[in-house]
Each structure stands twice: as C-alpha cells, then as structure tokens.
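Recall the central idea of this unit: under ordinary conditions, the amino acid sequence of a chain determines the structure it adopts. In this exercise we apply that idea directly, starting from the sequence alone.
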Amino acid sequence: MPGLPRFHVDTNAPHHRRPCCLWPVAGASLQKTTVLLCLLLSSTSLSPTGGQTKIPLDTVKLWADAFGRDLYNTVTKYSGSLLLQKKYKDVEPSLSISEVDGLELVRKFSEDMEAMLRRKVEAVKNLVEAAEEADLNHEFNESLVFDYYNSVLINERDENGNYVELGAEFILESNTHFSNLMVNTSISNVQLPTNVYNKDPDILNGVYMSEALNPVFVENFRRDPTLTWQYFGSSTGFFRIYPGIKWTPDENGVIAFDCRNRGWYIQAATSPKDIVIVVDTSGSMKGLRMTIAKHTISTILDTLGENDFVNIIAYSDYIHYIEPCFKGILVQADRDNREHFKQLVDELMVKGVGVVNQALAEAFQILKQFQEARQGSLCNQAIMLITDGAVEDYEPVFEKYNWPDRKVRVFTYLIGREVTFADRMKWIACNNKGYYTQISTLADAQENVMEYLHVLSRPMVINHDHDITWTEAYMDSKLLTSQAQNLMLLTTVAMPVFSKKNETRSHGILLGVVGSDVALRELMKLAPRYKLGVHGYAFLNTNNGYILSHPDLRPLYREGKKLKPKPNYNSVDLSEVEWEDRAETLRTAMINGETGSLSMDVKVPLDKGKRVLFLTNDYFFTDISDTPFSLGVVLSRGHGEYILLGNTSVEDGLHDLLHPDLTLASDWIYCITDIDPDHRKLSQLEAMVRFLTGEDPDLQCDEELVREVLLDAVVTAPMEAYWTALALNASDESEEMVDMAFLGTRAGLLRSTLFVGSEKVSDKKFLTPEDEASVFTMDHFPLWYRQAAEQPAGSFVFNLRSAEGPESPGQPMVVTASTAVAVTVDKKTAIAAGLATHQARQATRQSGPGRHLLLVSPQELDCLVIDNNGFILISERSQEVRYPGSGRRESGHPSRMTMYDYQAMCRPLSHHPSAAAHKHKKQDVLQPCDTEYPVFVHQTAIQETNGVIECGGCQKIFVMQQIPSSNLLLLVTDPTCDCSIFPLVLQEMFTLTVNSAHNASVKCDRMRSQKLRRRPDSCHAFHPEENAQECGSTSATSASLPMLLLPVCAWVLPPQLLR
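Accordingly, the structure predicted from this sequence is:
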C-alpha cells in the first residue's frame, strides 16, 4: 500500500500553521454523511516546488465573496430573516431582558419537585397504615373461601361461555393518564406468578386482608390526580395493583413476574448489604446440580441493588474469583456489575474436590477488610454458601472470623435432593444468624432465595421503622413491548408493611411492600425548558452518583430494527455524561447534597457527535429534600443568561395564534392537561385558547410562557403573508430551490411554509415528532436553532443531513440554512427566534449561487464548498468522496478535537479464535464500551490558507477561503494528481474500532473503583429481640405442581407492566 500523501504549507500564506491533510470520506455504504477528516502528517513547512502554477489567492477570494453574496441573498430572501429581525426591532421598546438567577432557579425547581414527590410519599403512607390496620384486624383462616379479581383470569370464559373461576367480568377502559392502557380506576386486582398457587390459604388470607386497600387507592388518586400506578407486593407472592389491569401471560403461557424480585420491593424490605457468594464447583456439582446452582446465584444477584456490594468466589480444591479483576474486593451491585457476574457464572465449569474452609475464610476476610476500611454498605454483611454438601471441619473458620459476635450472617443453600448433609448445612446457618434452605429443582430457587430477605428484614420490622425508599431509574417495560418509541424511565417510592400483632413481634414478620411509580419525564416537566435558554438543561442524579435523568442519557441502543435497553442503562455515572468535570468537583458536591454553583468550559456534541459547540456553562445545584436525589441546572454564558420578556393584548395574540401554519412544542407544558379527564384530549394549543378565552376557568396554565407565546405569535404573524407572496411569485420560476421555510421562537412556537408540493419535500420527517432533532423537545431546542444561536449576528449556518435519517439508505441529502434573531435591550442580548430554509442538496448544487460557482471556475481547477466541520455541500462531481483539502492543527484551520462517548455499544474483538461456536456467537453481541472519536472544527479567525498536498511523487496545490456570512469554506485544488489511491478515514471507525484490551482494562478499573457515594441514612443490621432460631427446616421441601411444571425457559420478564 502506498504511503499517505505529504502536505506542505506556503510559508507566505496568512496564518501559517502546522500542515495536515484533509480527505473527503464517505461511510462504508455511502449512507453516511461525507466528512473531511484532518490527519497531521508533518511539522515541516515547505513552499511549492519551483515550476508549479499557483492558484491566485485574490481570485479565489473574489469567487468566495461572490458566491457568499449570492448565497446570502438567496437564504435571506426565502427565510425572511430581515423582515423578522425588523419586526422584533419594531417592538423592542416594549420588551425587557431579565438576567436569570441560576441559584434561585434551581432552588425553585427543587422545591416544586420536592412538593410533587412528597405527595407520592403521603399516598404510600396512607397505604401502609391501611394495610397494617387491616392485618391487625384480620384473623388467619386456614379454610377461607374467597373469590377475587385475578388479573390474568378476568373476563375469561370457558367453552360454555361462563366466566372462569376468579375471572368475573371486570370493566376496562382506555386511559390516557395510564399510557392509553385498558384499566379500571374504581378498583384494583391481583396478579400472581405461575409458581404461586392462587388458592393457597396464605394467598387467600393475604388477598382478603388487602381488599381494604381499594378505597385508599381510589382516594389517593382523587387527592392527587398525577399519581400513576399504586400497588402492594405481598411477601407471599401476590401483587395487588391499582388501577386494575388485564395481565397477559408470555408466549409459553407463563407469568414469571414476581413482585418480590423487583428493586423497589427488595430495597424497601432490607437495609443495604455486603454479600459474598461462595459456590461449590467441585466434580460432585456436575449436571443438573450446577445448573440449579447457577440459577440460584442469578436469583440472588437479582435481589441486589446499587446500595449493595457483592463478589463471587468459586471453590473446588482451590479457590478463584470468577472475575479476577475483583480479587479481594467487593463491587457495587449495580445493573452493569450484576449482568457481568451473570455472564461469568454461566461459564463456570466443575472439577476437583470441594474444600470449603479456604473459601469461607477468604469471604470473611473480604468483609472484614471492607468494614474496617469504611467501604461497602457499612450495614448488613452476609455469606451465601451454595453447595451439595460440606464434609470437612468448618467450625474453626467461624470461631476465628465470626464468633461470638456473629456480625456476618451465613445463609446456606443445599443443592439437589440428597439430604445427607442437611443437618450440617442447617447448623452452619443457625449458628451464624442465617437461614438454611434446600433447592432441589430450578423452580425451588425463587421461593428459597427470598427467605434471606425475610431474615435481613427482621430488625427493621421489630423496630417498626418505616423507611422511605426511592429507587434508581429503571425502564418501564411497556416501552419494549409496544410500538411506542418514547423513553419511559421511572423511579418508585416504596415503604415496608409490617405485622403489628404482639404475638409475632420477635418473629419480625414482613407482610410486604407498598409502592407508587413516578415517571421521571413528569418530574422534569417541573423544570420548564423555556426558562433554561437555547443550550441550557436540567438533570437529576442519585446518592450513588448515577444519572436519574439527563438530556444526554441514552438508555437504549438499536440492534437491527429493535430498540433495547443497554445493560448498564441505569448505572451511568454523572462523570460519564458531564465528562469535562475531570476533577469530579460537580459530582462530589451534588452527591454530598450541597447547594452551590461552578463554571466549566465544555465541548457539546451535536448531530449525533458529528459536530461540536464550544460553550462556557454555569452549573447550579442543590438537593431535593427527603430524597436521595440532587438537581442540577445548566445555563450557558452569554445569551443563555438572559430571558426575553414582552407582552401583547390577548385579542391580538389569539388572532395570530389561530393560524394553520402555527404549532407549539408538543412536549412543553403551556397548560396542565393530564389531571382533569376532560382536558386530556386537548392539545396544548387548544388548552391555551380555552384558557385565554375564559372558556375553561379550571385550566391551569403557565402565564409567563403563555404571554411569550402571544407576543411571538403577533411578531411572527407577518411571515405567513411574506412566505405566501414569495411562493406565488416563485411559482413561475423554472427551478425550485427551497422546499420550505420555517421559524421557531424561544417560547416553542413554530411556523413553517412549503414552496413545493408536499410530495416533493425532500425530507418528509423533518419538523415532525419522528425527527426529534428538528423540533422543540423537553430536552433540547432544535439542532438548527442551537447551531444558529452560536453564529455571528446576521450570518447563516448550513448543515448537511441525510433525509429520513441514517436508517433509511438511498435517501437524498438535504441542507438546512438557519440564522438567529437576537434582541438587545440595555446592552443585554437574548435570542428571540431562529429562522431556516430547507432544501435538497442537489438543489443547492444546481441553484443560482452553486451553478455560478461551478461555471466560473476554470476547467483545470476543482472546487468544493465545505462547512466548518468539513462536510461537503457542493462539488463539481456527483461522487465527491475523494477530493483532498487542507487543514491546520493547533488554533488553525480546521482543528481536530477529540470527543468521548462513555455510553457507546461495541462489538468486542475475539481473543480466542479456537473457542467453541457459542462463544463466537457471544462475540457478536454489542457490549457497553468507552470510545473516543474526532470532530473537526474550522477556526473562524483563519480567513484563508493555502499550500501543497503530496500524493506520492505528485504535488497538488490548494487554496481555502472563508465564504462571508456563513459557516462555509471554498476549497480550490488543481487536478494534476489523483490522491484517491490513499485509504479513507471514517468518523464512524474512530467510534467503533476500539482497543479491546484497553476497554477491558478501563472496564475493570471502573468496576473496581470505589467512587464517592452517599450511603442511605438508615441501617438495620441486628436487633436483640430477633428470633435467630428460626433458621430453616431440614425437611426436604417439595415444590407445588405449578412450580414443577414451570419450564426453565419461563424465567423471563413478562411482557407488560414490569417494574
């Protein structure tokens, strides 16, 4: 392969910098946007060789200026930017610009969020009181006969047309407040997993007792119509949910959902814990026993959360950590680490003779070291011993490490049907405040693993400490089973329910857990987007430093045509999103619940990482009282510090608001429409009109935002007539240069007009909710608006994009040209609006300015128009992917920037070419990884540059000149040699081609790291009154018939409403 071309820069050219080479590059399938990537080749500066003809700099400047004038005239004409600027200038005397107080803003948002979350807590407390009172008044009846609404059987009929048992008629209606699901808001119903018998006496008594919750559910919802799902998860396995809903089994007819497995249940039922799982991998564990042991470990891992810590040690005639990276430590049991452990457990092999003493000693030492170092949970500590028997003398280990205080509980799980070692296993558990169970089948694992939670909950139950628990963010599984692609992340508030009966006090009986969901999207609506400026945003993180909500959180990835949650979607650290916070100053302050502010210079990726903005952001933060959450608000310096205020009459505003070309940001809250059922079918525009006309006095609206919308409607109204006249006058022209013109304002108002028939629009998704980047959302202003806001006043930013998005191959490229309209009052400047035009890329090439440029350039020269990030907009040839250009390193033109993505998904490289086939299959699965990728940015201070590119033995002269009033550059080269023989550089390759060894090291370091975290306030590890002799039975437990029939493949999440 020939070497890369060498590059020389004319030392006489202005702004001389170190040389580099730009290559026009296309994606592997020519679907990707072409980009010019800068490669630094040499620091030696040379002049062009003697007899070579130079490209005249003055001539190129004349071309650039002429092209710039024509282009500016075209886009100002079609966008109407000068008219809109004049209209805002006309009303300038009635406008004011207010400086935003970031600390006051974040405190206000925090107080509103606290009030909302407090209402959820009050609802949950009402349920706890009702459940405990109902249990106190209920006397257990072994022979109770009771019919209830079973959520699986409701409305089901037998072959005779009669309702099946537990399946009476249950009225269901679609409800927009509950994601348009069919529900019954007058009553709850009951779901049970397949492995729980629906007429077991414990179930019947619990369901009968919990009927008392029905009126409380309804009253809670009446008091707070923003409540969503309310529920009671019983320790016996049933799940009462309000509103009542039809539950559908999976394709195997199985209901695998068990409320006792869910994070909200486990976190509310127990205090934080350090767990070391010790598993026997000796030869006697082969076959089904090892399969059961693996499933038991997986079930234990499912009972852990981000406030817990864990490790797994396997032993035979020697011990080994199943993850060598974790040797001698405990790691946080977040989703990422749990899934990592499950993959490793699946690969465990059996061999040798089991010697448990050394493994137990290692486990005790880890727990002791972490306790002494004040690491881990600093609360419960336990060892889970999973084996088919223990033969050696293990008592000395407990004498040395755990007696007499018994600070570490030991839970034993005897695998298989053999009962020879049952007494020994129970002895270990009972003498270390643990619990013994025997697991004979896969179906036994769930019920038997849950026993350890009952033991750990005893101290809290005896004390009657009703701790309030808030979970980390988790995915609403409706997202994964419906056609909707909208992100639905939740947090749950939960509280334990105890038996108050005196005769059972020392037993510490946990009846269950009640909870209610909070959609994080609804919570973030309390930080209105319009108050944060063009680039501002709000975000939430947890006491562990994990993101709860952030506009740059990407919890899903695409695999084929399906969207799937990333394995680590709810354990993304704040430092992985706000990665410019390298000293973690922001992270530390927010985890500690501090109130304050700091500033950072940041590089903000745009357009899926292809572009970057350089901003100075001010971060304001505070805690949300009585929760483990902290809130941050970000405002960008400059126009982001100001908010434009104005006023107009309601009559004028209404007149100009009711135009068919006008829409409002569908995600923004102008009026509250999700509380009153009569309002839920209203659009935001319809609700605002009813509010302004007094037609509906009960509507609650954001009066400040409504005023801004009315003003913007009046000021922008003349644009409709302007665009209409332009379209009529342009109809006789032979060419259609622009598809549409549109504008948006800081109040989320959007106007647009078409200059062509709708069937000729080059990108039909543009300005629709399907194309989130082009519209106002809760998280971002439109891409074209954000880019325009950072351009110099009066200039346009041109952006090249693929019509219909990157998932639609073969679609034409389109170009948007946008500019911002700024208003200055008392030396303060705020962005009022943005305007843009939209057209096919081919039209750009064939339009007046583009055609003129290509005609005036001599035959012996090649001309390209590129944007400030190196993307080609206009070229002389239809395939322009092999035109070389120029660049500068340092502060020159253009600069290469390294950006980072800590939420990427990569296909790892195989290190085992001889591995089995199924191992190869696993290599194809995308996994979380860290990546870096280049972005190229033109430095506006560099007006022109010129030099030489060496292609082997040939030299190619180039000149590059800025095009006025735009983000574009004119690149002119001589065609004397062909540099296309050299390899192209793809931006995508930098993202996905990563060093797997480096990634493995980074992943290990991250999972080992003990980052700063704030532990939960309460801990309930032991209680002197607890009955430690309730530690399991040595009699072999047999599974019920439904459990024995449950297939292995059934242990999957159910298709709906899983939380």
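The mean pLDDT is 83.
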